[in-house]
């Protein structure tokens, strides 16, 4: 492939944009749980665990639908760039991206379990969010390493 | 390839129109949207509404620029200016989203910076897309 050095520029910016998208997404979620109303982060996290905000099915679908497309695309694009690398094995890429895809699904659908009353506490959503963000950061770190 | 670039050019045009409707077209109207006007009972924009806009702007600009710059590199990668054009358009796209959000917290003086970065990355996107279309259709 010609101009490989030039193709590294958009991939580098993908990493920066992805971090900003992740950060703004987590911030949006925390705002929806009451972070805005003069609450500390710690207090908001406790509130999510003990009394997560009630959400309608319509509201959940409105959030889940664009995220299914957007998160799937972002993970796919980030992971497929790693396939061109010689530093990260294809098996490693496959395993990490499958884990990130799985955790993204858990993150998107975990609030349904809270809204339908299958779990009372919001720990599941917090765990899913933390696990997805952590795994996606690992994927981005591997992509940065593979550049 | 020409069709997807054509779609991205349409997207860039409509994105400017969308932001003109949602955020504003000049410093005064953007300030009115972000901070409201107590004397005229205009409510300021909610933080979560603005953050949602910035969140989706980042995603859309990332993907439109990834496609546009990848095709541009493939067709015009030998040109020295291409490296700087790619850096410039990505940095401006990112700055545009960050300055809009920062203006909400820092103050109205950042609004002209947002307008300048927003317009510049869109214009640069048009230039990149236009040069790709020119090569694909007329060379």
Please give a quick description of this structure:
Chain A has 147 residues and is mostly helical. Chain A has helices at residues 4-32, 41-50, 57-82, 90-115, 123-146.
Instruction: Tell me roughly what share of residues is in helical segments of chain B.
Output: over 70%
Oligomer: heterodimer
Give the uncertain stretches of chain B in residue-range form: none
Query: Which structural class is indicated by helix and strand composition of chain B?
Result: mainly alpha
Mean pLDDT of chain A: 88
The number of helical segments of chain A is 5
Order of helices and strands of chain B: HHHHH
What general form of chain A does the structure show? elongated
User: Number of folding domains of chain A?
Assistant: 1
Notable traits:
heterodimer, A: 147 residues, mainly alpha, 5 helices, elongated, B: 139 residues
Question: What's the topology here?
Answer:
The complex is a heterodimer of chains A (147) and B (139).
Chain A: H1 4-32, H2 41-50, H3 57-82, H4 90-115, H5 123-146
Helix pairs in contact in A: 1-5, 2-5, 3-4, 3-5, 4-5
Chain B: H1 2-22, H2 27-35, H3 47-76, H4 81-106, H5 111-138
Q: What does it look like?
A:
The complex is a heterodimer of chains A (147) and B (139). Chain A has one domain (6-145). In chain A, 78% of the residues lie in helices and 0% in strands. Chain A has helices spanning 4-32, 41-50, 57-82, 90-115, 123-146. Chain A is elongated. Chain B has 139 residues and is an all-alpha fold. Chains A and B meet through helix 1 and helix 3 of A and helix 3 and helix 4 of B.
């Amino acid at each position: 492939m010609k101009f490989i050095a030039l193709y590294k520029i958009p991939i580098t910016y993908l990493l920066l944009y992805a971090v900003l998208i992740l950060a703004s997404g987590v911030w949006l979620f925390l705002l929806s749980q009451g972070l805005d109303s003069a609450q500390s982060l710690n207090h908001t996290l406790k509130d999510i665990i003990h009394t997560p905000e009630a959400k309608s099915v319509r509201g959940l679908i409105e959030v889940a639908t664009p995220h299914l497309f957007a998160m799937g695309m972002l993970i796919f694009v980030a992971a497929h760039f790693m396939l061109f690398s010689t530093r990260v094995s294809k098996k490693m890429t496959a395993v990490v991206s499958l884990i990130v895809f799985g955790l993204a699904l858990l993150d998107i659908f975990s609030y349904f379990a809270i809204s339908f009353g299958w779990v009372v506490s919001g720990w599941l959503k917090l765990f899913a969010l933390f696990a997805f963000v952590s795994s996606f950061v690992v994927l981005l770190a591997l992509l940065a390493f593979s550049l | 390839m020409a069709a997807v670039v054509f779609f991205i050019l349409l997207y860039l045009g409509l994105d400017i129109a969308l932001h003109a409707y949602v955020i504003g077209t000049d410093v005064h109207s953007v300030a009115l949207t972000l901070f409201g006007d107590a004397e005229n009972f205009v409510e300021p924009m909610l933080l979560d509404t603005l953050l949602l806009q910035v969140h989706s702007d980042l995603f859309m600009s990332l993907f439109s620029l990834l496609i546009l710059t990848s095709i541009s590199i493939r067709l015009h990668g030998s040109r020295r200016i291409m490296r700087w054009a790619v850096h410039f358009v990505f940095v401006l796209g990112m700055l545009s989203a960050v300055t809009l959000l920062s203006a909400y917290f820092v103050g109205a003086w950042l609004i002209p910076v947002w307008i300048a970065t927003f317009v510049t990355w869109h214009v640069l996107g048009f230039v990149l897309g236009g040069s790709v279309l020119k090569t694909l259709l007329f060379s």
